[in-house]
Design a protein that fits this description.
With about 325 residues, the chain is of the alpha/beta class. It has ten helices and 13 strands. The structure holds zinc ion.
Amino acid sequence: MNGPSTAAETTPAPVTRLEFDVSWSPGFVSAYLLDGDEPTLVDAGMYSPDNETELDLEPTDVDHVVVTHPHIDHVGFVEHLVETGEPRVYAPDAYRRTLSTPLSTVERRIERTVAEAGVPEKMADAATAFTLERVREVREALPADSVDVWIRDGESIDVGGRQFDATTTGGHQREHLCFGVDLDGERALFSGDMAIRTFRAVAVHAGLEPSQREALAAYDEALDRLEAIDADRVYPGHGPVHTELREAIRTARESLDRLLERTEAALRPSGTHAVHAAAARTDDVSSGPWLPEAIAALVALERAGRAESYLEDGVRYYVPVE
Ligand SMILES: [Zn+2]
């Protein structure tokens, strides 16, 4: 963690921004500590022994922990805080339903998605195992029994004397919530991995599970919802605290358009599956967001009438529309 650092020019009084090192771009994830009678942490960083040494925060300093979405870099310290203090933990209600699906079922869903995406048979088991491990990791970092309050879309929840207004914002992650909060006369938006000022968060809605097919529709809907929100200041999980919600939404829309264009350019009359489409964007499709984004983009192209698909030996191929 590079802090806790209070960026006075971007962060008004009651908010302290905590930064945790992560090994992927942009190299850090932020959590926000709201001061007051009942200190509240929004998101819980990335766990690592180094980050723990750096976290000069007594667990007893935190009365509430609010989670925007169950990704490992946002829930890393939940268990640490629960084991050493007594915070109330709040998480998206949709995640509770996800947790009710046994891992064996998740594994079968991943296998099916991996096969349909065109992952070669000799690599399919490794791809499934790797993806399942990421799911397991998050479940261990944020198990159901560490959550006290499940928050639904549209709900307004009292968190230590402050109202948190939840809006569901999928696309990056299917259970993702953004929270509008009145802070010191300003309207704040704790936006998790949405509304990042300088780049678009990857569209890994459901990773390599079948509902990844809904990723771009969900992302669009989330951006529409964010567009309807007023916020004076946005506190995202990555990138700077900013006052440019509309601009951040525009950046994301443009980036999604480019994703569709690049995916469309990869369509061949002989048939393009998701691994082909991902390989048009990266040399290594085996990890990272490439394959899930390709799955999502191909589906979006077909729904927009820009591609057609067919199944052959369990693999879904897309062709340009003549
Ligand atoms: Zn995330």
